[in-house]
Design goal:
The structure holds two protein chains of two kinds. Chain A has twelve helices and twelve strands. Chain A is an alpha/beta fold. Chain A has a single domain, classed as TIM Barrel. In chain A, the strands form three sheets. Chain A has an eight-stranded parallel beta barrel, surrounded by eight helices. Chain A has a two-stranded antiparallel sheet with strand order 1-2. In chain A, strands 9-10 form a two-stranded antiparallel ribbon. In chain B, helix 3 packs parallel to helix 5. The chains are: A alpha/beta, B alpha/beta. At the A-B interface, helix 2 of A face helix 2, helix 16, helix 21 and helix 41 of B.
């Protein structure tokens, strides 16, 4: 049985890719993921803010109160070299490449044009097989039109593409007026892949302290429906490869996502909750399902249930709405 | 050979050589020598090697006593070993120094000579420490400049290896240790050429070794000790020649020739000054100036003071000398004369006796100058020569001050200036926080390294840690700069903060036709009318070219916040023309890259942008022909201030303390307290504003305020009739003062703007949660109205102490703080505890304060934060030393107890006169609470009335000790450097004494005052100086150590985590009739985070288990209960989640990522384990006092 697939021009032994998340922060875990059968790993993101603020913060607090008082002209030793956040990340890419043989995809998370984008090139130099550009943007400015926001995405993508020769995937949120239009626009602008979708950390309110608190909730299987729909719609309509992300927890989820048209799926929460071994279980589950249903390869099933190929194309659109409502009767 | 030109300070110069020619450095931080140890530590941690290719081992000890012991041991076992110290630190080394010299051990100690504390502590420079070790038998070698520091460090090492006499190489604290100069750096080859490896191996061969065992350090009896002591004489006789030989060898290798005594001046001089240290550079400059004008004067610079070579001395003196002035930078009260004066007289007298004096016996006078870095200028040198020219020269004179008490001072003409033409002299007034000094250090490097010019920088810092002001004194010129005094005639004056115009007379030193650069929010068209009239007049009179730039705007636009350093630096280069503009900008950028490159590209970029934007924003101001402003600098202190404050302290505040005469100073170092209230510093840009509508009256704002600048009061509503218009109040909500009014009031001019009160305020607006009962707002528009409000507030009656629920946070905050407006950092984590102490017990407290931050913000002139209540009572405070504070406070208790006992004896004796009831009351009052104390005070009042006018001894004696009948609260306060390290032995002994003393340890987990060196309190994983790779061992558990005694009250508190527990712990500790120890978590600027959030960090330190809260009350054990009560919950937060918010931990992830990971894990485990141990201890059953295992 052939589980292999191609994503961003990379030949993957199966469609199960580890998504960006805390697990890839540790080299040993990365190795365990490879052992568990995971076919590629997206590293934890390097954040624009991390690049900008870490430096500023370190400088600020190392100099705070210095050169003011005769007895304490400084408060810290002066190491002549600091590992800057980005450098640490770049070193990590190199270490990861040495540790595992599966492709390593570096992730760059940011939104505005600026010096931080140069790190894409450095990621390539450090050995990354591809870059996943995660444009995490919450448009809170009511004066900004959808078109302008989409242009920001295009600009950011182009800037990164111009800096590297390795493939670049774009991780998107679902919040566009016309997802299909945006996806095609980005694909045309050079995106080698689209990762659908990014999960925003939605803030919460702490009623005891009356503070807005960040709240990280792991994905649940029901969340895969949203990407599933859009993968199915976009399949065949954009040149870029598509990766499914959000809510993939079981073998069936992988199969569904591939059938909708994804080249691969990214798993993260499932591995955090159930451990890395979950990858092996999912792959085994896939194989037995495929054997049971006489599928020979992943290629064979890819896109088989996309909007283009499925028996009931309207199900992915508005018509489905009525059907769902009626099903409760 | 071409040697690198480097621009460094004296400490770095000494450390550079010391690190190269030693194998072991055992050190302990003390200003101004700490940096030498820090350099050595840094170089070793970076793997830099010594001459023999090995990385020297640098270790920190618990005190200088300890460091000298370790040095002695390392030397005795054959390692080339050194240490760096000063002042009291050197004094602590004396016992070992006697031994090291007695055993003829080759070593060099590098000492940045500093004042020894007498009537007061001083961190500044003079030779009183060096002179205090004269009898140890060490060679004393003096350097006068930064170049000499580097040279002599090497010469000393060569000489000690050959001559076996240990050498104390010293240079003036701050003036040489911190002065930045362009010098020629010695190369490794130079050092190789000077250090004879055979002598190094001979040193090793003398070492203790079991393979060739010997005994050294015997005890000797009257029969032989004396002979043995005399046995070393040949070594001392030979040593001056050996030192000269090393100097000659150095001259061959490097080219600079030194002699034991170096003479400069007229070859046929009749008047000669003899002196050593940095002052000799100034004298050299003055002598050159005077001889060029035909004066027959000269200067004899002393290099090798001990062993004193009379031959070399006489050899160096011109034979034409008629009179000599020997200048000592020390005072030996009661001596026949200062040390060098006596040595010179002895040398001359002996030769006279022998008949070999090559000239007639000259007039010899001795004088003192420069104590505690007092300015020593060419004008003073001239005054000394003028004195020598007088028919009856003044002897035992002082110069540089006005002695209007004993009239020993020489008058001098301050307008006598000898600085040559072509020297650019600059003043830069900066805020500590704006990076001025750092930028100036860069400018010196740029000019020193990019041009042929010589460059010098000296920096005058503030004695306040919040809102501190720095004055940089820079000189650049084509010839070496010998001016070891402040710039007194500046041709460039830069003011980096507009508000300074109202505070200092900064154009006082501006020369005719000089340049004045002002960082101003007002543009060239409008600035003129915004500056005080006297400044306008100076600009016009002195024909000053006036430039402005809105540096804050440029900085803000470039994303650099308030750091205007590179902007003002660019202006300086643009205006001064020291370098062609483009070269200057390129050089500035290169320096920026070097300074910030290690920290990241973004910072470099921001700075570049600031530089690029600067010139477009720099404008020359067209100076009108006449002054127009109708306002001028406000008076330094209020006219209501007491005479002493107005006449003396105000001068010091205004930077004019040098003008004060001797008579204005107390004879014994005693100062009035409660003077900080007169120093209105107005340093906050924003201050808190109270919204009474949503206040919940918790009192937390007042509790956490480090400066007592926000207070609460409860009072009768009728008093409000005279309130100023914007004064706010609300009904009091509690039962205890029902019907009264409540106010939270800010002291607008004393607040430092740290925002801790706003951060802690829990009262939020229900409809707009970001609005709290306290919000920050611009200070300027609030200053006038809030000043009136605060004055009104202060005049309201203080609360009745007997009516307050003192054991609650709010109750404690109704009590008047008797510690206010100190010079501590904005957001200081220590001072809220001290303030609480003074609120609870200040009216009967005596405080012994270990040297450190708390002694500096508590006791540094000009003003004193310890205050008095309306009855005139308040804390009495003193600082003895760093190491002996527990013992010092213990002495307080001994007196209080003894006098109490004696008073009781006398009371019993005098019962007949005073009445049984009064005596019984005085003897039996338990004074357990405020009411009891009030009753006792009232009885004391009666006692004094009864005995008033009595003439008999018993009555007079009773009157003199009767105050001891009112319970005194003895407090021993200090930081962790004292309690965990240098003072631990004494602390342990005093705690074990069983006496009723209260110890408050303000634990910042690092030596804060000397700039963040590691202490035994530093926790695992924290970066500190001397622990650059992260502290690898756990923090010492001082609390648990004290608990093991069983009879000591111990509390570990963190106000930000549990303020209620803090208040209770203070009360219990004080009430406990025995020793008490409170260890208080004190967040600190040395932790590296936003101080506004200090209390949150305290909370998280507790939540992650790094700082478990507990109280151990021995009285509970007496009652059969477990005395240990845990006041915090089991750790629930991961240690690194807390730690990564503080630079002290986080920077390790950047500098040593792998160590950071390992140490974070280790710390996490430690915290959990410690908690488990505590939990088990707290669960032990004390039930029947026999067995801990039964229920």
């Amino acid at each position: 049985m052939d589980l292999s697939t191609t994503y961003l021009g990379l030949k993957l032994k199966n469609p199960l890719v580890a998504g960006a998340g805390p697990l890839s922060r540790d080299l040993d875990t990365l190795r365990h993921m490879e052992d568990a059968g995971i076919s590629a790993a997206v590293l934890d993101s390097l954040f624009e803010e991390q690049i900008r603020h870490d430096e500023g913060e370190l400088d600020h607090y190392l100099t705070q109160g210095t050169e003011s008082f005769a007895e304490a002209l400084s408060y810290f030793p002066r190491p002549s070299e600091f590992t800057k956040g980005p450098e640490e990340y770049l070193e990590y890419i190199a270490k990861a490449k040495a540790k595992v043989s599966i492709p390593v995809i570096a992730s760059l998370n940011g939104v505005s044009a600026g010096g931080w984008m140069e790190y894409a090139r450095k990621m390539q130099e450090a050995g990354a097989d591809a870059i996943e550009l995660n444009i995490y943007y919450v448009p809170a400015n009511p004066a900004l039109s959808g078109g302008e926001i989409e242009q920001m995405y295009v600009d950011a993508l182009k800037a990164v593409k111009a800096a590297v020769t390795i493939p670049v995937a774009l991780k998107l949120s679902p919040f566009f007026s016309n997802m299909a239009f945006t996806a095609r626009q980005l694909s045309n602008a050079g995106a080698d892949g689209l990762v659908l979708f990014n999960r925003f950390y939605q803030p919460d309110i702490d009623l005891d302290t009356l503070e807005v608190v960040p709240n990280l909730v792991l994905s649940s299987p029901s969340e895969m429906r949203l990407p599933l729909r859009w993968i199915a719609i976009l399949y065949g309509q954009v040149a870029a490869d598509i990766a499914g992300s959000s809510g993939v927890h079981r073998a069936e989820d992988v199969i569904k996502t591939v059938m909708a048209g994804a080249s691969c799926v990214q798993v993260c929460s499932a591995l955090i909750v159930h451990g890395v071994k979950r990858g092996t279980e999912m792959l085994k589950g896939m194989e037995s399902w495929m054997a049971e249903h006489d599928y020979e390869s992943v290629t064979q099933m890819k896109g088989s249930m996309s909007q283009r190929n499925c028996p009931e194309p309207a199900a992915f659109e508005r018509a489905n709405y009525m059907k769902v409502l009626q099903s409760y009767k | 050979m071409t040697r690198r030109k480097v621009t460094i300070d004296g400490n770095e110069a000494a450390a550079y050589v010391a690190h190269k020619v030693n194998e072991v450095c055992a050190i302990y931080p003390i200003t101004p020598s700490s940096n030498m140890g820090e350099w050595a530590d840094q170089w070793s941690s970076e793997g830099k090697t010594n001459l023999w290719g090995s990385v020297p081992s640098v270790v920190e000890l618990q005190s200088e006593g300890g460091a000298s012991g370790a040095v002695h041991g390392a030397l005795q076992t054959g390692a080339l070993t050194t240490t760096f110290t000063a002042s009291q630190g050197l004094l602590l080394m004396i016992p070992n120094m006697f031994k090291i010299a007695g055993e003829l051990t080759s070593t060099v100690f590098h000492v940045s000579a500093r004042t020894v504390a007498a009537h007061a502590l001083s961190i500044f420079g003079d030779h009183s420490d060096v002179m205090a070790v004269r009898s140890t038998g060490w060679s004393l070698l003096s350097s006068a400049s930064v170049q000499e520091v580097m040279d002599m460090a090497l010469i000393a090492q060569a000489a000690t290896l050959e001559g076996r006499i240990p050498v104390l190489h010293f240079f003036d604290g701050f003036r040489s240790s911190h002065e930045v100069q362009k010098i020629e750096q010695l190369t490794e080859e130079d050092m190789r050429a000077m250090i004879n490896d055979e002598l190094v191996r001979a040193h090793r061969a003398r070492a203790l070794s079991p393979n060739r065992p010997v005994l050294r350090g015997s005890a000797q009896n009257p029969d032989v000790y004396f002979q043995a002591r005399e046995r070393c004489n040949p070594y001392y006789t030979a040593f001056p020649a050996i030192m000269q030989k090393a100097m000659d060898a150095f001259a061959k290798v490097v080219g600079r020739q030194y002699r034991l005594f170096d003479y400069v001046g007229a070859p046929d001089a009749d008047r000669v000054i003899v002196m050593m240290g940095s002052g000799a550079e100034t004298a050299h400059e003055a002598v050159e100036y005077l001889t060029a004008r035909g004066e027959k004067v000269g200067l004899l610079k002393v290099r090798l003071f001990r062993p004193f070579s009379a031959d070399a001395f006489l050899e160096a003196l011109p034979k034409t000398v008629k009179s000599l002035a020997v200048l000592d930078r020390t005072k030996e009260a009661g001596a026949a004369g200062e040390p060098m004066y006596q040595d010179v007289l002895t040398a001359l007298g002996e030769r006279l006796n022998l008949g070999t004096l090559p000239f007639a016996f000259p007039k010899v006078v001795g004088g003192r100058y420069g104590l505690s870095s007092k300015e020593f200028t060419p004008a003073m040198v001239k005054a000394v020569f003028d004195n020598l020219a007088a028919p009856a020269p003044k002897n035992h004179f002082s110069v540089g001050i006005e002695d209007d008490v004993t009239h020993l001072s020489l008058a001098y003409d301050p307008h006598f200036i000898t600085e040559g033409e072509g020297v650019i002299r600059c003043h830069f007034y900066g805020l500590g926080s704006d990076g001025t000094v750092g930028a100036n250090k860069n400018s010196i490097k740029i000019i020193g390294e990019e041009t042929e010019n010589y460059a010098q920088g000296y920096f005058v810092y503030d004695s306040k840690k919040a809102g501190s002001i720095t004055v940089s004194h820079l000189r650049f010129g084509p010839r070496p700069i010998r001016s070891t005094y402040l710039v007194s005639s500046a041709n460039f004056v830069a003011c980096h903060a507009f508000v300074f115009l109202e505070k200092f007379d900064m154009l006082r030193a501006a020369a005719q036709g000089s340049v004045f650069l002002l960082n101003s929010p007002y543009g060239p068209a409008e600035v003129w009318d915004k500056i005080p009239r006297s400044v306008q007049e100076q600009i016009i009179d002195k024909k000053i070219k006036f430039y402005v730039i809105d540096g804050y705007k440029v900085a803000k636009d470039a994303g650099m916040g308030g750091r205007v350093n590179t902007i003002m630096q660019t202006c300086f280069f643009a205006i001064s023309g020291v370098l062609p503009k483009d070269d200057a900008i390129a050089a500035i950028k290169k320096a920026i890259k070097k300074t910030y490159g290690a920290k990241g590209e973004e910072i470099v970029k921001k700075n570049f942008e600031a530089v690029d934007q600067t010139l477009a924003n720099l404008f020359e101001v067209a100076v009108p022909a006449a002054a127009t402003s109708s306002f001028d600098k406000p008076p330094v202190v209020s006219a209501q201030a007491p005479d002493y404050v107005r006449n003396v302290l105000a001068k010091i505040i205004a930077n004019e303390g040098d003008d004060l005469p001797v008579s204005s100073m107390p004879a014994d170092g005693t100062f009035p307290t409660a003077t900080a209230q007169w120093e209105k510093r107005n340093i906050a840009l924003e201050i808190p504003v109270w919204d009474e509508k949503i206040c919940i009256q918790c009192g937390k704002c007042a509790l956490v305020c480090p400066h007592a600048a926000i207070r609460i009061k409860v009072y009768g509503g009728a008093l409000l009739k005279d309130a100023p218009p914007t004064y706010k109040s609300m009904d009091y909500k509690g039962q205890e003062f029902k019907g009264m009014k409540y106010t939270v009031q800010v002291a607008p001019e004393d607040c430092t703007g740290c925002g801790e009160c706003v951060f802690i305020c829990p009262a939020k607006d229900k409809s707009n949660v970001k609005h709290k009962s306290l919000d920050m707002a611009d200070q300027l528009p609030l200053r006038e109205p809030e000043r009136a409000n605060y004055t009104f507030f202060l005049a309201l009656p203080e609360v009745d102490r007997t009516a307050v629920k003192i054991d609650t946070v709010k109750g404690s905050q109704f009590l008047q703080p008797l510690f206010e407006y100190s010079g501590a950092c904005a957001g200081c984590g220590e001072t809220p505890y001290i303030k609480l102490l003074t609120q609870l017990f200040g009216d009967r407290a005596i405080i012994a304060n270990a040297t450190g931050c708390s002694s500096i913000y508590g006791g540094n002139l000009p003003t004193t934060p310890y205050a008095v209540n309306p009855e005139g009572r308040g804390p009495a405070w003193s600082n003895s030393l760093f190491e002996d504070n527990a013992e010092f406070g213990y002495g307080f208790r001994l007196t209080v107890d003894k006098q109490n006992e004696y008073a009781r004896e006398l009371l019993k004796k005098l019962t007949g006169r005073m009445g049984e009831e009064l005596v019984k009351g005085l003897l039996e009052e338990p004074q357990k609470d405020e009411l009891g104390i009030a009753r006792q005070r009232s009885r004391l009042f009666s006692l004094k009335q009864v005995l008033a006018g009595a003439k008999d001894a018993d009555a007079l004696n009773l009157l003199s000790v009767a105050d001891a009948l009112v319970k005194k609260s003895v407090w021993i306060v200090g930081g962790d450097g004292w309690a965990y390290d240098i003072g631990y032995g004494g602390l342990d002994h005093v705690l074990a004494s069983g006496r009723n003393v209260n110890v408050l340890v303000l634990d910042t987990e690092v030596y804060s005052n000397t700039g963040g060196q590691c202490s035994k309190s530093t926790p695992t994983g924290a970066v500190a100086k001397f622990a650059a790779g992260g502290k690898s061992l756990p923090k010492k558990d001082l609390g648990l150590l004290a608990v093991t005694y069983g009879n000591i009250y111990v509390a570990r508190v963190a106000m930000g985590a549990n303020d209620n527990q803090t208040v209770k712990a203070f009360l219990e500790a004080e009430a406990y009739d025995g020793p008490s120890l409170i260890i208080a978590y004190s967040h600190c600027i040395a932790h590296g985070f936003n101080m506004t959030e200090g209390m949150q960090h305290q909370k998280e330190a507790v939540e992650c288990g790094a700082w478990p809260l507990f109280r151990y009350n021995p009285e509970m054990a007496l009652a059969g209960k477990n005395p240990l009560k845990l006041d915090s919950k089991a750790p629930k937060m991961i240690f690194s989640d807390y730690a990564m918010k503080e630079t002290r931990f986080k920077m390790l992830t950047k500098s040593h990522p792998e160590a950071a990971k390992r140490l974070m894990d280790a710390a996490q485990k430690e915290n959990l384990q410690r908690w488990q141990v505590y939990e088990q201890l707290a669960a032990i059953n004390y039930g029947d006092g026999q067995d801990g295992h039964h229920e």
